[in-house]
Amino acid sequence: MSKALVVLSGGQDSTTCLYLAKRRYDEIHAVTFDYGQRHKIELEAAKKIAHMAGVASHEFIKIGDHILESTSPLVTSNRLEQYVDADSLPGGIEKTFVPMRNQLFLTIAANRAVARGCNDIYTGVSQADYGGYPDCRNKFILALEEATNLGTFDDATGGGIIVQTPLMNMSKAQTVQMALKLPGCYSALAHSHTAYDGQYPPRGKDHASILRAKGFEEAGVPDPLVLRAVYGDEVMHPDEIPDTDNYSEEVVKFYWMTLVDDMEHNDALPIN
Fold this sequence. Notes:
Oligomer: single chain
CATH superfamily: HUPs
Largest sheet: 5 strands, parallel
Shape: globular
Structural class: alpha/beta
Helix content: 25-40%
Number of strands: 5
CATH topology: Rossmann fold
Strand content: 5-15%
Radius of gyration: 18 Å
Number of helices: 9
Distance between the termini: 36 Å
CATH architecture: 3-Layer(aba) Sandwich
């Protein structure tokens, strides 16, 4: 039986990785980290999505408050930067970056993978849109993978951990297109959480929210999270729908009806 472990944050990218792994492996295990992040809504998102995906196990790992220290507004009360659009995003290290976070998460994930008999760990990092997160680069992942195997296996025992990063060189638009091909993924993304301000429905202009909106716009597909907020939970007024082509009346009607059908039948969606 093939097995994989997925680092599931409850966000767009980890959700896409979860459904990709689900398609490739017989048994999926998920781990979600509670590391003292300012907003816990992503933990609830991960719980909902793991249930929708039907994983074999889902463990919440409590890192503890103040274990990861940073000036990042994700773990402090510091002000969250807002931007006009994707073109206005600054270069350099993003202010929301939490040093050593991915290294810690992947180290613990490797421990769980060995314990559960999984050789493959899936994580949704991407250097194409990494925007100031050094621990989302491929060379970091490869270095950590090598160190993990050196510290876990020897020539006698054999074996090895592979850190799978299927989104590494994909834009957000490309990940949206991938999600549409994966049964159940689009409807799961309706329950994912990306906004750094912890708000649902999403109205902010933080780094992550802007990149997510840009990805769906470039893919020509409405964000199912927005459709859920407007037509499902009715916590967002239709007038608040973004004024972009991927939210034209015709496109929204098609994808909302298809989203409802996807929830009922778990079918993959067509791509525009």
